[in-house]
């Protein structure tokens, strides 16, 4: 019995062990599966690590900039291939941990390394990221200049802080970018912009100087001639000259806007005066067109405002001129309204609507593009640069408004813009219906004379002296004219003048220096001096006044502006109100015997190669005036020759350039084309510092000038 019990117990144990063995076998199988899975995962992780290492290595090899990663002790962890190429160090050195100072020794100059390491320590301590282009110093990025492999480089740096919270790993990634080419390109662009500005200023001066003669002579013909056909031709010349000046102004304005140099100059102005001026100009422009200008202005709109009157007027005239060009029948309506905003502020609302040809929908988007005209097939005959609307929109934007357009092709167009303006006085403009009525273009007639006025005109260009004298003639004024600042100073030692007109750009002593010397003379501080200049850039008047002048007249000189200056500057006791008499003007409308005989002299000049036709055009076909210019040129040659030769001997190339520039203009005026062309080449050479060309052609220039003068002098004795 006892054995049976033992057998049963053994049987139970065997069964239990069998079950335990089965369970262990199952666990073993499961462990084998888990082990295989772990092995597979490890292989995957190793493969992924190798892949990431490959990616990182490839990234570091191809990364174009110098990258240095450092730990929190500022020891190197890794670097880009660009760093190894520059430093000559190897990967093991970087992995073992170079100090940041050692790593930077190949990039920065010794005096730069310490401050840069301090900057990195500060970034690490404050957990900051820094970039040199964000650290502004006097408006420029805080770049580093260094010599790398014998070449001077401009470096931009970026310091990035990194941290892995779980492993408490942190440090900095430092990237150096070579900005040398970019900065050089920027410098070239800045220099190109300066060159463009200088070119535009020179172009303005070059064109305005002959334009002064053209518009001046046209005015003289309109004023003095009894020949209606000649007056008609002169009116067309004046109109064309004014159009050319408008184009020049557009180009200069657009250039200033693009370069960011355009300024909005605010001052007090009268809105009623502005609108009346604009309406008068546009009615003149309409001429005989079957188009009516309607001006609708809210009588309650405040008249005394504060803003840039010149630019507001420019925008309105640009838009209205555009309407005149493209409207053949119907009307152009200028509407001006306002909305009160605050006690001293209102919103001006301008709109110009016409019944012209309109604009196609697909072309509305490009209506404000520069140098663009829409519907070019239909508008090929319309004048303009395509800048007016582009300039207008940018000016309106600069004054805090927005210029918009609506149009229906074949029916008309409406431009509108709003503008916030400060109000000086809320008194309204009143009824302007009479003030804005039609006005006819007419020849300017001065409303006063000043026959006792003593006026000195200083200009190195003989033609400009004649134009100034001609403009002053209707006032009964016979000015003293001189061609240099030096001679002006001599005159002032023995004579006094009520007013001096001073050209700016003159050789040896320019207008500014002459003015300053006059101011230093006894009584010179009170002398009234007006600068004459072909530099008509906006804001230039302020700089001249700050320099010490009492005022400014732009060439070509406008009769209205001359009248304003004379009336303002001359002593009141010299002003005689009323239109001048014939005796005061001393008009001549007949030919003398000498003028009749001059016909033969012109033929002699033609036969000897002088472009008489060109000279006569400059003299408005006035043969007597042309020959007077010829004689003046011949008589002044000796002094001019000696002056130019003196500049050449002294190697004073700036004054040499100015002198041959004047000779270029005067030679062209009399028709001495060969002499003018050579002077132009010498002027260009002086401007470009081409001394070899000057030395190779100076003697030929002097010889050609002397030969031309001998011909001019001999023709007068034939």
CATH topology of the largest domain: Heat Shock Protein 90
Domain count, please report it: 6
N- and C-termini, Cα separation: 174 Å
> Which overall shape is indicated by the principal axes computed on the Cα atoms?
elongated
| Number of helical stretches of at least 4 residues | 23
Low-confidence stretches: 135-141, 370-385, 438-442, 584-597
**What share of the residues lie within helices?**
40-55%
How does the helix and strand content classify structurally? alpha+beta
Provide mean pLDDT, rounded: 77
| Major pleated sheet | 7 strands, mixed
Strand content: 15-25%
CATH class (first level) name of the largest domain = Alpha Beta
* Number of DSSP E strands: 22
- The CATH superfamily of the largest domain bears the name Histidine kinase-like ATPase, C-terminal domain
Work out the radius of gyration. Answer: 41 Å
- The assigned CATH architecture of the largest domain is 2-Layer Sandwich
Topology (SSEs and partners):
Layout lengths: L1 H61 L3 E6 L4 E4 L1 H7 L3 H6 L3 H5 L5 H16 L4 E2 L4 E2 L2 E2 L2 E5 L2 E14 L4 E10 L1 H45 L3 H31 L8 E4 H16 L3 E8 L4 E6 L1 H17 L3 E14 L2 E10 L6 H4 L23 H11 L3 E7 L3 E17 L19 E2 L5 E4 L3 H11 L7 E3 L2 H10 L4 E5 L7 H10 L8 E5 L6 H8 L3 E4 L4 H11 L6 E2 L4 H4 L7 H15 L4 H7 L4 H28 L2 H18 L2 H15 L3 H25 L3
Parallel strand pairs: 10-12, 17-18, 17-19, 19-20, 20-21
Antiparallel strand pairs: 1-2, 1-8, 3-7, 4-5, 6-7, 7-8, 9-11, 11-15, 12-13, 13-15, 14-15, 16-22
Helix pairs in contact: 6-7, 6-12, 7-11, 8-9, 9-11, 13-14, 20-21, 20-23, 21-22, 22-23
